[in-house]
């Protein structure tokens, strides 16, 4: 099965194309078939709210492949066999709390039996409980209620620890691994035990982390205890996330090709999210950190600012511009007849490709306009009158830019140095207070710069680290707060490079632009059935399932990488730099650019889901007979939430890797990222556009004057939406940063700083011997007990004879 049609994007057939959204703020509009290369400015704004996760029901349904559908009935059968042996006349929902607890304890005891078949049956019965005992429920809301009740019950009786032990046994099961390695084709049947365990664990973590105001007080206590345990090294002396990372590397090394990687990655993502916290928690941690370090508060809440942004109209595509230029040439020829028309044309800026609505477009006042953009010379008149807009359609926006400008200390130093050398002829190094001899306007400039000076937590952490390195004795021992992020970093530190390579390998295999290669890893082990489909309908269903499976893997990996980068950056900047550098070394930057080098609009509007087969809908409703039409139709949503979420995450990762790193910014230029990123601006979603514009801004100065001249609408959008750095010459390219850069030296210096940090804080065995305390007391040194090996004790007489008695000793020299 090929995933990736024209240009590597997901294939979109005519019926799917007809399902694309055709409604917006102004009602319906006629659709004309357009080529993928043409501008998609007629698409409405996507009503997408970025969050840590999708809705709970969607996150539950993505755990299961459609191929696993028959297993719901099998789980129910296993539960009812166990249940009817003890309770014959009542349903699970009719029992009281004591009976529920007693049965849960019986099932937990059953997990400790030796027989694998018996143990799997009990595990399936527990999974049925975690799925909400759906046979006794009449609607999805009821299933979700009983899921929450049963899962807190299972947690209370100690099920999770037992599952972790069983998962460890399965990971170390060498017989299953060697059998899977020898098999030519791996299917769902090879990972049955692992899938059942991972399903229960995922349902527990995902359900418990959901906030519900109706929770009992004891449930809230259980939740906090579970969060602490999950992030602590209680399971096999390491946090659960480290164990799951180990599974990822074992899978990628080829030693365990049967591991159900989608479920492992989903559980890993939700474990990190639950233990470390999501984006709201990150913002509050950042505020607290700044308070602790005595830094001024943040100028604004970035989450709120981004949510209030509106999407801009995408810039014109190449085909539109070529067509426009041809028409312009014809119009110029006609206009020679009338001199006044020619004069009017000459007054117009020849580089502007937009009509008189440009100012409104650029100010976001006309963003919900759905008509295709038109250009001034496509009509008969050369200078058209302004188009009137009904007052009801105009949206009022606060005046000014969304972000407060920022200035770094380094920027102020550079400005003062250049001013002093220009006006006085000498420099004062890092002195930012002395302004003697400088003109009055320079004084005003410095005052404005200092008003907007921003000191980040990272800068403070780096300066403290320099102190620890320079004066270790006077600064003393560093107090490290053992929070969940610190414990996780210590757990993954020894093998972090391998973990990053493994995640990127799986991301590459799941990307829709990747071609199937013989040497790439097989990530479809937990989606392919034992018997391959025989009918067209089954093949279509499997095709949807495979595409959906890959999309979910991309979603999980992008979320894992972004969460880790953000949490490590707040915990300590060098932890973030260590992870970021290994991502760069593992070719993360070209991989993300390759991911975006597709028809991104098709990817975001892909309909790779069959809503009637999604859990919990499929277990409480009679399933209709599937037809080719119902498979093609998908759901009626305007876009695919998970795909838009993945794209935003990958753009944010790319921003994190390249920010303030000139060598990595030049990688964006070398890999010709500008046209790829510019195509992504077609997606009318404000947050995605913001991160694309940020990436374009950092490389604008390297792209040349011609690029800037022909992309003025993009430049305008950057000015409008991206934060300003005062005296940042991003739009021109005549500052120091635009000159050739010693890329290797920059990365090497950063790597040396990271290694010094890691060895100082974590490598206690190789601490500097010069700083170790010395025992000068003869009695205590001689009185120390030294454990000698057995063979030495047996041959002690021989050693004395050879080393002491047979060698002459010059006592005079020894005493001197």
Q: What characteristic shape results from the CA principal axes? A: globular
Quaternary structure classification = single chain
Number of E-type strands:
2
Helix content: 55-70%
Radius of gyration: 32 Å
In spatial order, strands of the major sheet run 1-2
Low-confidence regions: 1-41, 334-397
Indicate the proportion of strand residues.
Answer: under 5%
Total number of helices: 40
Region (Disordered): 1-41, 314-397
Organism: Xiphophorus maculatus (Southern platyfish)
Family: Belongs to the STRIP family.
Protein name: Striatin interacting protein 1
What does this structure look like?
Residues 1-41 and 334-397 have low confidence and may be disordered. The chain is 56% helix and 0% strand. It is globular and about 95 Å long. Among the domains are: 56-276, no CATH class; 409-453, no CATH class; 486-605 and 637-745, no CATH class. By secondary structure, the chain is mainly α. A two-stranded antiparallel ribbon has the order 1-2.
